[in-house]
Amino acid sequence: MRTVKSCVGTDWCRYGVQDSVGLAVALELRYRGLRSPHKLKSGVSGCARECAEARSKDFGIIATETGWNLYLGGNGGFTPRHAELIASDLDTTTLVRTIDRFLMFYVRTADRLQRTAPWIESLEGGIDHLRDVIMSDSLGICASLDEQMARHVAGYADEWAAVLDDPDKLERFTSFVNAPGVPDPTIEFVDHLGRRVPAGMKDGQPTDLAALGLGGVPITDGARIPMGAPA
Ligand code: SF4
After folding, report:
1. Distance CA 208, CA 190 (A)
2. Do 133 and 167 fall within a single domain?
3. pTM recorded for the entire structure
4. Which H or E run contains 218?
5. Domain at 89, CATH number
6. Which residue among 5, 8, 68 is best mutated to probe the pocket of ligand 1, counting the most ligand atoms within 8 A of its Cβ?
7. What are the distances in angstroms from CA 127 to CA 1, 39, 44, 132, 183?
8. pLDDT in tens, the chain (231 residues)
9. Which residues form the signal peptide (predicted)?
10. Which domain holds residue 103?
11. What residues are in contact with ligand 1 under a 6 Å CB criterion?
């Protein structure tokens, strides 16, 4: 589950009709760590102007005056595809429950590495069948889907934080087991335009910048978040 993209919504945009930032944060926290057949992307736009490009996501939400429109099955990439509208003007509770069911139905039935767009196309009846399953419970599985998602949400744990808290697990992340204090000499970082990047990753960029008349000029000026080396 990737970071949920949002526009600035009612907090910072005069056109916003719903709190797109708040919903995006809530969705990201709810679905983080979900194991799925392929990556999942989502976006939330605070009005029909669609600045978050929600319709290019596996599940995208666009605010309306009275609720949220939900679109499913979009993607970018080599074969871009707009997500399709599955329901309009949903209240937030119904919206989240519908996304819960969509995701769990997808997780349980899609092939490995099958994105949501081809998965929906593979369903007999396509998007209409999907709507029937997750909104009208045509297969009688919604209680099970709800229960599975509730279990995921309740059971989420930050696996990387758990490694940092466990000295035994942390020990596995050393370059050499017989010399744990010695860094791998083949891993080298360099400073590039004020950023710490792996050596060899910046080839080609100076040429492009020079073509733009920006050779040697830092792309960003002003205050920056300090980026320290890992301890
Ligand atoms: S989608 Fe609407 S609310 Fe969001 S930034 Fe664009 S204009 Fe503003």
Report:
1. 19
2. no
3. 0.82
4. none
5. 3.30.413.10
6. 8
7. 22, 20, 20, 9, 52
8. 999 999 999 999 999 999 999 999 999 999 999 999 999 999 999 999 999 999 999 999 999 999 999 999 999 999 999 999 999 999 999 999 999 999 999 999 999 999 999 999 999 999 999 999 999 999 999 999 999 999 999 999 999 999 999 999 988 888 888 888 888 888 888 887 788 888 876 554 444 555 556 555 555 555 555 555 554
9. none
10. 5-156
11. 7-9, 13, 15-16, 20, 45-47, 49-51
Q: What is the DSSP letter of 18?
A: S
Taking a C-beta distance cutoff of 8 angstroms, is the pair 45, 20 a contact?
A: yes
From 20, 55, 56, 62, mutation site for ligand 1 pocket: most ligand atoms within 8 A of C-beta:
20
| 177 and 199 fall within a common domain | yes
Ligand 1 atom at shortest distance from the alpha carbon of 14: 8
Instruction: Report the domain count for the chain.
Output: 2
Instruction: Report the atom number in ligand 1 closest to the C-alpha of 50.
Output: 1
